[in-house]
Amino acid sequence: MDTVNGRIGRDGIDDAGSRVALSNHLTRNVTVVNELGLHARPAARFARAAQEARSRIWVVFGEEKADATSIMDVLALGCARGARLTLAAEDPADRLVLETLARLIETGFEE
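Above: the chain's sequence. Below: its structure in token form.
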């Protein structure tokens, strides 16, 4: 299990649109283990859990950044089994929510 990485980078996509970096965010790297990836049912559970946060929670996959509270945004990332994601919380007070989201992904949503 990866540990919380801390604060890195700068928020948003650079001028060229070539990378996503997060500034002053609490981050966590995880790997999707669910055989079917992050499909509709897990995405719904994930988004509901993210809605408990006081701040915005982001999911970063490759060069894409999605609002973790949006089922559609999470699904649009197209995360298959083995996908490496970065979860990020804007407020360090949301550490527990971030850990809950990481646990859901790392346990395959118990499916």
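Residues 95-106 form the longest helix (12 residues).
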